[in-house]
Amino acid sequence: MKRSWRQASALYGGLAALALIIGLPFWWVVTGSIKLPREIIQREPTMIPHSFTLQHFEKLLQASDFPVYLLNSVIVAVFSTAFTVLLALPAAYAFFRMEFPGRNTLYRTILLAYAFPGVVVLIPLYGLFAKVGLIDSPVALVIVNVALALPFSIWMMRSFLATVPREIEEAAVVDGAPTTTILLRILMPLIAPGIASVAIFAFISSWTEYLFASVLIVSDARRTIPVGFAGIIGQYQIDWGLLLAGATAAIVPVVALFAFIGRWFVSGLTEGAVK
Amino acid sequence: MAGLSLKSVKKRFGETEVIRGVDLDVRDGEFVVFVGPSGCGKSTLLRMIAGLETTTSGSIEIGGRDVTGEDPAKRGIAMVFQTYALYPHMTVATNMGFPLEMAKRPKDEIDRKVRDAAKILHLEQYLERKPRELSGGQRQRVAIGRAIVRQPGVFLFDEPLSNLDAELRVQMRIEIAKLHQDLGTTMIYVTHDQVEAMTLADKIVVLRAGRIEQVGAPLELYENPDNAFVAGFIGSPRMNFVPATVKSAQGNVAVVTAPKVGLSEVAVTTRGTPPAPGSDVSIGIRPEHFVPAEGAAAVLSGKITIVERLGGVAYAHAQIEDGNTITVESRDAREFTAGATTRFGIDPKRAFLFDKDGRRA
Asked: If you count Cβ atoms within 10 Å of the first and of the last residue's Cβ in chain B, which end, N or C, has fewer?
């Protein structure tokens, strides 16, 4: 379809506006992290940095607890992601293909989990974790993150499973493949983009989770980045340079994950299977 | 190799009965084709034989063994799907070896059998390719290869050629026929294309609305159909049906007339006792069985609306006086002129008579 110049300019103008809304804060954070402190707090903000310094990063890595927070965040996020994917795949397959009583009702109700704000379950969960001795443990965060990410992940994974032609599974059944083999050797490679999407969703959910991490983790040495960094905002003074450098450094693992997993986002994985 | 037997097989999806009691015996090594219009249940029946659909009642035996409740992999069958259903992330060799791998056969045996099948199907140079790097015909050959390596008792084909273009379809049809000759294995083949059915089958099973209408050799169905449905379905272009009335009957000959279309008395031989005089019937005449009007026992006249000239033969579509359209074949492409009112001769010996319920009279 050929667009008129009006349509094209409206489309590209709209896209540019969206890109600006999303990109500008990133630009602000990243450029702010290399500005001298006086330029950061200058009355007239500068879009293009006039000064350049790595002093905030130096302070971040040498004089703050950032490396500890980073490590904690990475551990929690990696385990949360792994468990989310490992549980979402078979659960989604069961909802997608297996016959059991209450399947459709259950599938519809899992998303209800998001109807309640996290803060509602915070106190009961705290009590629960306290009883089993998991307060101040990253295990508690992993459990919470997996529980929070799972309903949407199952829902998303099921839609990806639905894109695989039924005949491929039937051919595998005729070939004598048991259900686990069909899931692991046939379906999993075919829905790699879906698994990648779920992994990124779970990773980011865990990476940015604040509420539970702020309550379930007590000691400073076990804090994750969002909570640890909240401590930088002092009552009387904020070290903006350090905060911006920390925010910039916190983006890096997410970008790296996208770059690593992005390879799986290739279309046409099932090309050649049918027709 | 194995024969197959279906006994009172039924299939119900909720309230809808899609297979309404099918009895069928397939001899070892036979090539059986299920044909019928869409929704007649032919694919469902095949999937029930494969074990991909459960059987509501009745029993399915393969090689003398009741497999009604058995897993597909344990039935001794292999299936080729309409959409090929190859594993897109695996190479041709892995695709073909997959069933053997699942059966935990040793690697050297898998390699050997895959190579043998690839040789039969001319796929040797493609073994390391992925399905997306193959043409439609090659993909279908891989799907057939995956079936061959298992050395099944029964091959099941679910409209395997419908995704291919016309030329490739003819080529693959010949290859499947050759494969059957070489392997001698029982094959059950589902198609809606009656040309495929006629050319491939030892035995055709015509299905309608979940029931078998007739079973027989291709020429048997063509020459001796049980009812108007089978008569219309087998043969291309389809048989013409002209409504008529029985004027008199004697022995196994009925004299019918159709004054509306200018058809005076035609004596048609019936299978059994002819319908009583005065009954409504229809005369079935295949397009290829019209004869020159001069000297013909009976004549139909109609105005030619369209002429299709295919080179070797030509088809005239003509409107007869009751408003119905008939199709007439001629070896002489110049015989028909669009717009002309033409007389078409009928050979009563090659005409069929059907009662008002469509049963062969």
From this structure: N
* Residue A174 to residue B50, Cβ atoms within 8 A: yes
DSSP assignment letter at A192: H
Contacts of B190 (CB under 8 A, 6+ apart): B33, B34, B35, B42, B43, B45, B46, B157, B158, B159
Beta strands of chain B (E only): which ranges? Answer: 4-13, 16-26, 31-35, 57-62, 65-66, 77-80, 154-158, 186-191, 203-208, 211-216, 240-250, 253-258, 263-269, 280-285, 290-291, 298-309, 314-320, 325-330, 341-346, 352-355
* Mean pLDDT calculated for residue range B224-243: 94
Residue position matching structure tokens 């790097």: B133
Number of Cβ within a 10 Å radius of residue B109: 13
Among A241, A265, A251, smallest CA distance to A36 is for: A241
Question: pTM here?
Answer: 0.83
Residue B39 per-residue DSSP state? T
A190/B81 Cβ within 8 A: no
* H or E element in which residue A73 lies: helix A66-97
C-beta separation of B191 from B184 below 8 A = no
Average pLDDT score over residue span B261-265 = 85
Closest by CA position to A253, among listed A214, A213, A200, A195: A200
Count of alpha carbons within 13 angstroms of residue A264, beta-carbon side: 17
- A1 band by pLDDT with thresholds 50, 70 and 90: low
CATH of segment(s) B4-233: 3.40.50.300
pLDDT in tens, B174-203: 989 999 999 999 999 999 888 899 999 999
Cα(B58)–Cα(B12) distance, integer angstroms? 12
Residue of A167, A174, A270 to mutate when probing chain B, most B C-beta within 10 A:
A174
Q: Which of A168, A268, A275 sits opposite B87 (nearest CB)?
A: A168
Q: Is the per-residue pLDDT at A266 higher than 60?
A: no
- pLDDT tens, B305-361? 999 999 889 999 999 988 889 999 998 878 888 999 999 999 999 999 999 999 998
- Is residue A63 helix, strand or coil? coil
